[in-house]
Design a protein that fits this description.
heterodimer; A: mainly alpha; Amino acid/polyamine transporter I; two-stranded antiparallel ribbon; 2 strands; B: 530 residues; alpha+beta; 3 domains; 5-stranded antiparallel β-sheet; 12 strands; 47% helix
């Protein structure tokens, strides 16, 4: 029974259900904001097929990311990297993960800020919004993973309800305009594959698993949890891309900045409720918050472990400053942010976060296995 | 006391006028009774000074043993004291008259006293703390131990329904200021020996009796251990009300939200104890503390359980809705009028704009003026004597509400918003939670004025993180919503049928998870079916 309300970092435990909610919200927020299946390539009316394709690619990468974590259920990536390839190489590899967490957190924050700036707070200076989210995320990360998990429990129903309600209210319009989805797969599989690249790459977010698996109640089932989260968010992505493409039209939709929010904007709920996209954006912000606080937690925890500190909390302040600065200065404006989410830019960049560290670690694991040594001992 | 002569004081008095309270306290704690009765009475007089309510009556047991009883006037039951006197001073004389052995007498003094709870003490400090709760001390010449007899007879307020926690259906009894009456009210509901009630004294000067009630074998031992250690850690002069104890034992002092539930209702305390919680009762106040307390508990009222399930669920959900409304409505109004006018239907927007015509303040100033005004009114309403209560409602409703609108200081829409918020706030059953929500409401109003709905979103996120990080005696404050516990959701925002709720709260009642046999859903008997 802890006398104070902040339990020690190492004893923090979250239920796999909470992990599922976190992963679901983390991915869903980003893939439905830009709707990259529609906007990043030339899939047009076949965006939904790209969404389905992205599930398989992403699932493959989840196996790569989370597989090792399940083999070392009590260790974070920083710890097992040092076990597998030695102390210093392990630490250097871990820095790639730290970088990934920082960039992803900053990009998520920037997406949130841009969504607000374009739609609602057009006069507000960007740093205010960015730092509001940075402060919220830092305080959550400071409170610990348990608190983030509980917050995910509370916010998940709101988040899901907002998406489901948006889709339900959009359904009549979508059925009316379903001709927008035709012809089906008329231009072959090429555009579909190109459209699925970015949603696959966004799975780099699940690198967070490498840090949180040891905190899960059942680390052995974490892989299943991650795949279920991916499945859930893929279903949402398919439905959202179907409805959005139908209502906005493939041509117009692919030129929009935030196609999903633009779609919600067109909805009328009975005759007196209009412009309800603010509620969708509101709930979506909850998802972004859960995402960024998890990345903040993972990033500071990873840095603390690389430096050999017992507590990650003192690092949150400095990291939050770097994170906020990143979010503000990495992208000049909305269009640069959108350019970043092009297959040929974000693709290789984010893929390297997964492939380089995980490739090396899997190779080391495999070699140790083949040479007869037990990889989890040393 | 008056029998004592002043000259004795100079000889043997260890207590002098220039001793401070702490010196005096330690000196008295050390004092022991001596065989000489006169000396004992003398010491007692020095300790108590000239307090007129400390009564000493000297008499003789039988024919030879001088004795005295000490008690505090109006705290004892006069007839009990008279009974002691009769038994010792008059009845023994008859025995003596019959030439019985007087050695026998001394050993049987205790047997002669017919009142309850006979104890002994040889310490002056303890003797006084015993008589100050209505006991009578019997001092006998030649004995170093005083006999304590229970002659409790203080006039008490009768057990009535508490004003702050009324129900339509349910028991009409509430706690009173006497600890003994309160524990008996609990015992009456839970009639097993496994209801344990421990007693501790807190406060070096007030010596407040604090009782800790729980069901042995049901309440978590680790939680009880933590609770005991937190209560024993309290080292203070005086505890006047349970609020002092609450502040000393809560997990996290820097929060607006109450982490301990206080109530005046025995039925509430009993149902909490039956869930595996513990109750702290304090002498001198009708407010008992229930802990651990989760947030949903503060929005539950006994009626929910006594009404049928659909009504219970409906009123409980209504209460949640009202609580949310009381926090978010002013902020939402400010945000919508300032930033997000598109959310309002055009006709309504035009109306709101028209009524704001000529109002000199920004919306947020309007709302804050009215909210603060209302808070002042509410506070004044509590402090006012009941006789002039109607006056404040006239001043509040007519003069301020109506005149403020006519004078163009605030718009009617703001008055509606403030009134709706206030009414919603009153539906929260626990006053400590209602007052917390009132303060949070101001934070949301200001955030909304600065950033619109996204300021409120920031506020909601901060509130979520804060609420999720709170714990009450190790139990997460937002349970069973966060962490989400499916089986406990049956009694949280909704309330299921009594026969359907088969388990205790998972985090607390894990020692005996089941409260009843499953499958007790009522159904018509075979013969009734047509």
């Amino acid at each position: 029974m802890p006398a104070n309300s902040f339990p020690k970092t190492t004893t923090e435990k979250i239920a796999n259900r909470q992990l599922l909610f976190m992963l679901f919200m983390m991915r869903t927020t980003v893939v439905i904001a830009f709707l990259p299946v529609l906007t990043s390539a030339d899939a047009f009316q076949d965006a939904w097929a790209a969404a389905i394709m992205s599930f398989f690619g992403a699932a493959l990468l989840v196996l790569v990311i989370a597989g090792l974590g399940v083999k070392f259920p009590e260790l974070t990536a920083v710890e097992y990297a040092q076990k597998l390839i030695g102390k210093w190489p392990g630490k250097i590899i871990s820095l790639i993960l730290v970088w990934a967490f920082l960039v992803i957190a900053a990009t998520d924050t920037r997406i949130y800020a841009e969504a607000l700036l374009t739609g609602f707070l057009t006069e507000t200076p960007l740093p205010f919004i960015v730092f509001m989210m940075v402060i919220a995320g830092s305080i959550a990360a400071y409170s610990g993973l348990e608190v983030i998990g509980r917050a995910a429990d509370l916010l998940f129903p709101v988040f899901l309800a907002a998406i489901v309600l948006s889709l339900v209210f959009a359904l009549p319009d979508a059925l009316l305009l379903k001709r927008n989805l035709e012809p089906v797969l008329a231009r072959g599989i090429g555009p579909v594959l190109r459209g699925s690249i970015i949603p696959i790459i966004i799975i780099a977010q699940y690198l967070a698993l490498t840090m949180v698996i040891p905190a899960a109640n059942q680390p052995g089932k974490a892989l299943g949890t991650a795949l279920w989260a991916l499945t859930g968010s893929s279903v949402v992505l398919v439905l959202v891309s179907l409805v959005t493409t139908a209502i906005m039209g493939p041509d117009h939709g692919s030129r929009l900045v935030f196609p999903f929010f633009s779609m919600v904007r067109t909805l009328n709920i009975s005759i007196f409720l209009e412009r309800v996209e603010i509620f969708a954006l509101f709930a979506w912000g909850f998802g972004i918050f859960i995402g960024v606080s998890v990345f903040m937690y993972c990033g500071s925890r990873a840095v603390a472990q690389v430096l050999g500190l017992h507590d990650y909390r003192p690092l949150i302040g400095p990291l939050a400053v770097i994170w906020g600065t990143f979010a503000e200065h990495s992208y000049q404006d909305m269009f640069q942010l959108r350019t970043f989410f092009q297959p040929k830019i974000a693709g290789p960049y984010a893929l390297s976060w997964i492939v380089i560290p995980m490739g090396i670690l899997w190779a080391a694991y495999g070699i140790r296995r083949l040479t007869g040594g037990k990889p989890d001992e040393k | 006391m008056k029998i004592q002569k002043r000259k004795n004081k100079k000889n043997s008095n260890p207590l002098t006028d220039n001793m401070d309270i702490s010196q005096r306290y330690h000196e008295v704690e050390k004092m022991k009774l001596v065989p000489s009765l006169d000396q004992n009475l003398n010491t007692l007089q020095q300790v108590c000074g000239y307090s007129f309510d400390v009564k000493v009556r000297k008499f003789t047991i039988g024919l030879k043993a001088p004795a005295a009883i000490v008690y505090i006037d109006n705290m004892v039951n006069k007839s009990s004291v008279e009974e002691i006197l009769r038994a010792l001073a008059i009845d023994t004389r008859k025995i003596e008259d019959r030439k019985d052995n007087h050695k026998l007498l001394k050993s049987t003094i205790k047997d002669l006293i017919t009142v309850n709870d006979v104890g002994e003490t040889d310490n002056i400090g303890e003797l006084f703390s015993k008589i100050s709760i209505g006991n009578t001390a019997l001092l006998v010449e030649g004995q170093v131990k005083a006999i304590i007899c229970d002659t409790f007879g203080l006039q008490l307020r009768s057990v009535t329904e508490p004003d702050a926690e009324t129900t339509i259906r349910g028991p009409r009894e509430g706690f009173v200021e006497s600890l003994f009456v309160n524990t008996s009210l609990i015992r009456r509901h839970i009639r097993v020996p496994h209801l344990w009630i421990e007693m501790v004294e807190i406060g070096s000067l007030s010596k407040t009796m604090v009782a800790l009630a729980y069901i042995k074998g049901l309440a978590d031992e680790k939680m009880l251990e933590e609770l005991r250690s937190r209560i024993k850690r309290i080292d203070t002069d005086a505890v006047i009300e349970s609020g002092f104890i609450e502040e000393f034992i809560e997990d996290q002092p820097f929060t607006l939200f109450p982490l301990v539930l206080r109530t005046e209702r025995p039925d509430k305390v009993c149902s909490a104890i039956l869930e595996g919680k513990a109750a702290v009762l304090t002498s001198g106040t009708p407010h008992a503390l229930i802990l651990p307390a989760e947030l949903p508990m503060f929005l539950m009222a006994p009626d929910d359980y006594y009404e049928k399930m659909p009504m219970g669920t409906f009123i409980r959900m209504l209460r949640w809705f009202a609580a949310l409304l009381s926090v978010f409505l002013p902020g939402f109004y400010v945000a919508v009028v300032n930033f997000h006018q598109e959310l309002l239907p055009t006709a309504l927007l035009l109306r709101v704009t028209a009524t704001r015509e000529g109002v000199p303040f920004p919306v947020v100033a309007e709302v804050l003026i009215m909210e603060i005004l209302f808070e002042v009114l509410r506070e004044a309403g509590i402090r006012l004597p009941a006789a002039i209560g109607p006056a404040i409602s006239i001043v509040g409703a007519l003069v301020l509400g109506d005149a403020a609108i006519r004078a163009g200081i605030v718009s009617p829409a703001v008055v509606i918003v403030v009134a709706l918020t206030a009414i919603s706030n009153f539906s929260t059953p626990a006053f400590s939670m209602a007052i917390a929500l009132r303060i949070v409401r101001f934070i949301f109003t200001i955030l909304a004025a600065v950033f619109g709905l996204f300021g409120m979103q920031f506020g909601i996120l901060m509130l979520t993180v804060h609420l999720c990080s709170l714990r009450s005696f190790g139990i997460p404050y937002m349970a069973p919503m966060a962490p989400f516990i499916l089986q406990d959701m049956k009694d949280s925002i909704i309330k299921t049928w009594s026969w359907d709720k088969q388990t205790r709260p998972k985090l607390l009642g894990k020692r005996e998870p089941f409260i009843q046999r499953p499958g007790q859903k009522p159904h018509p008997g075979k013969d009734d079916r047509q």
